[in-house]
Design a protein that fits this description.
The protein is built from 9 helices and no strands. It has helices spanning about 1-30, 35-55, 60-85, 90-95, 100-115, 140-150, 155-175, 185-190, 195. α1 (about 1-30) packs antiparallel against α2 (about 35-55) and α2 packs antiparallel against α3.
Length: about 210
């Protein structure tokens, strides 16, 4: 039908446009000299990835990508990068050291993608069924929630308990006593009195000569 063909053409145009921006942003992450600029390029890459998820009608994954990675992880990463004293020259030396290996890996990835795109020319049948369009009012977020809290409730709770255990273990390892570690005593700070911190000394006035 003409309407479906027009919609598929518009979707393809948007897909290639945002994919191109995503590739440029990914290149900017690894080539930017300023760490803050690299982090901003990574934010741009995450946003374009979320748009691609939206084009695939995976709204939940798109929202999670924006909220978790862009809204939380990347903001924290930006604060850490701006607060730390990073030696940019040393970072560039590491980039040039591993550049040949990175080029080899990139070429292998490009070859794999090209073989998938042009697999029809290799004589392999790639005929797949076109996925049916979602009905009006369908929400994949609601469907995912129903699956998580019904069929996969116990694995979901188990994953939550594992994450909680990992958080407790990380806090325990951080708070262990070791040489040179300064630990804060909250009870001693609360119980402090002004006379324990301030000492008033009376001195005789000096006479002018």
């Amino acid at each position: 039908m003409p309407g479906i063909g027009k919609r598929m053409t518009l979707t393809s145009i948007l897909f290639y446009a945002f994919s191109a921006v995503l590739v440029v942003a990914a290149l900017g992450v690894i080539t930017a000299r300023n760490p803050v600029h690299a982090a901003l390029f990574l934010v741009l890459a995450f946003v374009n990835s979320a748009v691609l998820w939206l084009l695939m009608e995976a709204e939940f994954l798109a929202i999670v990508l924006v909220l978790v990675y862009v809204g939380a992880v990347m903001v924290l990463f930006l604060f850490v990068v701006m607060m730390l004293d990073i030696n940019v020259a040393q970072m560039r030396e590491g980039f040039t050291r591993y550049a040949p290996l990175g080029i080899i890996v990139a070429l292998l990835v490009v070859i794999e993608i090209a073989s998938v795109v042009w697999v029809k020319r290799l004589g392999v049948d790639t005929t797949t069924a076109v996925p049916a369009a979602a009905p009006e009012g369908y929400s994949n977020t609601q469907a995912l929630g129903e699956l998580l809290y019904t069929h996969y409730l116990y694995p979901f709770e188990l994953a939550a308990m594992l994450l909680l255990l990992a958080i407790i273990a990380a806090i325990s390892l951080t708070m262990r006593k070791r040489r040179g570690f300064k630990q804060q005593d909250v009870a001693a700070q609360v119980a402090v009195r002004p006379q324990d911190r301030i000492r008033i000394v009376k001195m005789a006035p000096e006479k002018d000569a």
